Amino acid sequence: RLSATMAKALNDQVTLEAYSSQVYLMLSSWADNEALDGISSFLIKHSQEERVHMAKIMEYIQERGGKVTIEAIAKPKPEPKNIKECFEMVLKQEIENTEAIYSLVDISVSEKDWATFNFLQWLVAEQREEEKLALTLLDKVTLAGGKDASYASIYELNKDIGNTSQEF
Ligand code: OFO
């Protein structure tokens, strides 16, 4: 059974995953408004991926006898000003998620809660992939010219990111 501390920390992670999902929704809506349909669709799919993380953590808490409490989700930060800023926000969000998951791992180790430690390894691996994906996308934006990219390269970038799979 989960300790109260571990249950609370996992519950906070449920809220953070929901917040990440909102961040991706905000970015997707921004991209759509900028006529970047490929980027918008990539981001909305990623928003759903964050909901999947959220649901898996909820399920784990419940399986271990804990109670999930649904909390308010903070409003995402202001919209980006350009594609470069958009993908910098993606990377920042993923780094924040990774750090939060590492703190959960720390708690599981200090409590010798090996079941939770084992469950979290899936999230640790997932974050490694997500940071890699975010870095790759940011590299593509830089190659396309960053915030000074031409319309022609933004056109190609939008198509390319639209075809990028969520899993790397
Ligand atoms: Fe994109 O990550 Fe969830 O945790």
From TrEMBL:
It comes from Pseudopedobacter beijingensis. This is Ferritin. Iron-storage protein. Belongs to the ferritin family. Prokaryotic subfamily. It is found in: Cytoplasm. Gene3D superfamilies: 1.20.1260.10. It catalyses: 4 Fe(2+) + O2 + 6 H2O = 4 iron(III) oxide-hydroxide + 12 H(+). PANTHER family: BACTERIAL NON-HEME FERRITIN, FERRITIN. Keywords: Cytoplasm, Iron, Iron storage, Metal-binding, Oxidoreductase.
